[in-house]
């Protein structure tokens, strides 16, 4: 600790602590304020907390922990207008289907479920019949999902990963 607070490292250490403090304050504010705003817009408490969790996980630059946490909630698929490339890839790596469907937010309301066809790149709201089309998932990503994720795929088809 003494070394971190010495003249040579003091500026870096204080900057890092300040950055972490600001990030923590931002995430705390987001996770307490945003659900109340969404509730005022008619989205139930559970829906608003789920939305806030997804947004908060998205702030982690798509780290695998975010996709693992989403998968652990029992979500069957993540459908969105767009994803960062890292988040999209990490979804498939942990065995969580994901689909980019421009216009998807126009065909759903709070509590709706979607029927998703990754191979065709479509999402349909069974309650309304509304459908949106996006980009079909790459066959390699589909194989990864079928295997249960990247590690399971590597175990099943080790020849794919040899030099």
UniProtKB/TrEMBL annotation:
The chain crosses the membrane at residues 12-30, 42-58. Keywords: Lyase, Membrane, Transmembrane, Transmembrane helix. It holds the Pfam family Aconitase_C. The keyword Lyase applies. Residues 54-101 form the Aconitase A/isopropylmalate dehydratase small subunit swivel domain. This is 3-isopropylmalate dehydratase small subunit. It comes from Streptomyces tremellae.
């Amino acid at each position: 600790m003494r070394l971190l607070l010495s003249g040579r490292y003091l500026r870096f250490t204080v900057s890092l602590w300040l950055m972490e403090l600001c990030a923590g304050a931002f995430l705390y504010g987001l996770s307490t304020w945003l659900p109340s705003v969404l509730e005022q817009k008619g989205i139930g408490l559970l829906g608003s907390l789920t939305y806030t969790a997804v947004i908060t996980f998205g702030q982690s630059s798509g780290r695998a922990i975010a996709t693992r946490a989403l998968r652990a909630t029992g979500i069957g698929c993540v459908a969105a207008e767009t994803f960062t490339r890292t988040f999209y890839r990490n979804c498939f790596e942990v065995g969580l289907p994901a689909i980019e469907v421009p216009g998807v937010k126009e065909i759903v309301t709070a509590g709706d479920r979607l029927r998703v066809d990754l191979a065709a790149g479509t999402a349909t709201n069974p309650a309304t019949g509304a459908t949106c089309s996006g980009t079909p998932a790459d066959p390699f990503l589909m194989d990864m999902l079928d295997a249960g994720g990247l590690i399971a795929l590597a175990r099943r088809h080790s020849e794919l990963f040899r030099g």
